[in-house]
Every structure is written in structure tokens, then in C-alpha cells.
Amino acid sequence: MKNNKTFLYGVISVLLFTACSQPASREEMTKEIFETEKAFEKMAKDKSISEAFYYYADEKAVIKREHDTLIDGKENIRAYYEARELKNASVEWTPDFIEVSESGDLGYTYGQYLWTIISAEGDTSEFKGVFHTVWKRQDDGSWKYVWD
Length: 148
Fold this sequence. Notes:
The chain is of the alpha+beta class. It has helices at 2-20, 26-46, 49-55, 74-82, and strands at 57-65, 69-72, 89-100, 106-118, 124-137, 143-147. The chain has a single domain, classed as Roll (Nuclear Transport Factor 2, Chain: A).
């Protein structure tokens, strides 16, 4: 009888453990990506644009910028943004659409962005456009972009 109880407790423990460790649903992952986008935007505002683009980049991330230039790799992305005069610049964005793959390892977003730049003379310039970001789920469950 004692062996049966021990076995039953073992089975219940395994069932509880596996129930608690189920992978996130696509809906939950969509929410995670949205929250990651907003944390990324906040870091760009609160710390710096270069730090935010560095922090949220996958090691093999690529960004496409002016004249179809590709900047490849996390360190090169940081260097790209640090070389720009962005001390008087800010960027805002919100995803209008988020999709997550069936496997849950990739997602993508797109939406509107707004860059605001204040010149040394105090003149303000705004640049609007559409962004498209591809996100990769990391081993720790976080999301990092692989394309922006």
C-alpha cells in the first residue's frame, strides 16, 4: 500500500510539473513581443538609442538603414548608433501587427515610427515611416530582434 501511495504522489508530481511548464501559447507570446517592443522603446528614451538597439539585438542581428546599408551583428549595431549624433534625437513606435510562428520561436511586428531630431539651433525635424522587426525567442524565453 505504501508503494502505491508513493507511486501515486510521484505521478501527481510529474503531472503538476509538466502542467506548470507548458510552453506559452501564441497569444501569450504575442503579448510578450508587444511588451518587449514597448520596453525596447522605453530604453531608447530613458538610456540611449544605441544601448536599446544593442540590448535587444540577437548576437546575429541585422539592421537595414539608409541607402539599403546592412549593419550586421550586435557590436556593429551599437557602433552604428554611437557614431550618429543622436543626443538630441528620440524615437517612438508601436506595433500595429504582431504574428508568432506555429513553433513559437520566431515572430514579427510592423507599425509606425516617429524620429524627432532637434538641431543645435533648436529646430525640430520629424521623420515618419513604417518599421518591420523579426523577433527570435531566446533559450531563456526572452525575445531579441534578428532583423530591423
